[in-house]
Specification:
Elements: H1 2-22, E1 28-36, H2 46-68, E2 70-78, H3 83-94, E3 98-102, H4 106-112, H5 116-119, E4 123-124, E5 140-141, H6 147-161, E6 168-174, H7 179-194, E7 198-205, H8 214-221, E8 227-230, H9 234-247, E9 253-256, H10 261-268, E10 278-281, H11 292-304, H12 312-335, H13 342-348, E11 380-387, E12 390-393, E13 399-400
Parallel strand pairs: 1-2, 1-3, 3-4, 4-5, 6-7, 6-8, 8-9, 9-10
Antiparallel strand pairs: 10-11, 11-12, 11-13
Helix pairs in contact: 2-11, 2-12, 3-4, 6-7, 8-9, 12-13
Length: 409
Amino acid sequence: MKKNLKRMMISMMVVFTLIVFSQPIYAAEYNISGFVDFTGPYAVVMPPIDDCAKATFAWWNEEVGQKLGVTINRVVKDSRYDPALTASLWPGMLAQKPLAHLGLGGPDVAALMKRLPQDGVPMMMSTGTYGYIWLPNQWVFQPRPTYVHEGAGFFNWAHMNVIKDRPIRIGAISSKVSPAYVDGVDGLEAFCKATPWAEFVGCEWVKVKPISLVSEVRRLASKKPDYIWIMTNTYHSLGCIKAEKELGIHIPVVNSTHSGIAMCALAAKDFKILEGHYDTGALDPGLNLDLPGPQIYKKYIDKLGLKQQWSLMTVQNMNQNTTVLRACERAIKAVGADNLTGKAVYEAFYSGTFTEEELLGLSPDQTWTKESPFSEKDIGVKCTTVKDGKQVLVSDKWIPVPPVPKWVK
């Protein structure tokens, strides 16, 4: 009798245990907002950005968030990359109580920058930035420094490896159509004035979509620059390169990533035209498929049936999304899975260095302070060129960025 009772008690305990552990585990559910542009000027690059975001959120929820008892949804609307539409859509997005916002570009900054502190929502961008954003106490976070910092990183590599015995002579091509374009040239000039081994020889100001740059490149070439820096668009980059070919000269063009090797090759449908030219950015250029980021992406595009392959666009997007999600992880540890808020995520950005490993190899270490919207510590870039018709890294290591003075007071 006693044995039967004992067996019955054991059986009941086993059944009770199975019932308890078979119940679905409660997960706190939150949103992160973002804009897309499938109908405006950036529609052509939106498919890889959108696919990568889907893959990144699926990875985090399955492999990280599940262990923390948290699910984070991505809530997006099409803003057509328009500041007015961005502003009008924001109240509806804010009603979703987002923990953070994934900025698409300039319209997000223009429409939301001053609202974010009162709305309690930090915004993470994906691109490089400008001197007039280099301000303290921002709720806009940049995973990359200014485009001038990124250019300075390339020139530092050239100073250490190519032109070691004299100052590097740097020219620029830009346009006055945008304050951002003018800001970049102002920053380059300030960098050269503060750097003994760099000399600014001048800028040619051109139309935003020039028919030909032969006259401008001839004038700039007469000043004998070693490099021509272009941070504007592919019209200027390819226009400069084509003008050099017409003139029978070769002055290496140094591009920003948004108008760099990959984007120019896409526009020109030809890598060969870019032989001996460069680009530079404070993120991985997407050539190394063995990094954790592309490995995760490969797994999830197969799992989700997505179509877009790994590229500079997916690197940029995964770096943006991963950085925000890592901040959410830190906020969960600080306040608990049931108490997440945008303010907690904002404070998490200041909780210490986000390592290259945490950021899946896509970015150098990031250390935010309230002095700047981007990490001013240990800034590094990776630069690529075209050699024998193929895009290659000039170095597989992060190239240190030398000091760049603030040029906007």
